[in-house]
Sequence to fold (96 residues):
Amino acid sequence: MHEKMFNRIQKAHMTDCDNIADFEVLKKCAADVGLDVEQWAKDFRSDKVKQMFDEDLHLAYRYGVNSVPTLIANGKYKLTGAQRYETLLRWIEQIK
Fold:
């Protein structure tokens, strides 16, 4: 469901011009993709999910991630911004 929810949130943000920082917008996205909205809301507000989110933010800070997309490999190789396929292939070859 991650991909469906991610795509629905992107549509809400980019196409529908909805405020995806609004809980009700996200809740509607969850309903639209067929999630159990009650369980989703419970998980969304859970301490466990908040802790996981905080850990991800800390890791992004540690790696110096400040834009999307950013790829990190082996904890030390970073590639930022949209890249051509050939650039991605060269980057992968360099980190092997």
About this structure: Helices lie at 2-14, 23-32, 37-44, 47-63, 85-95.
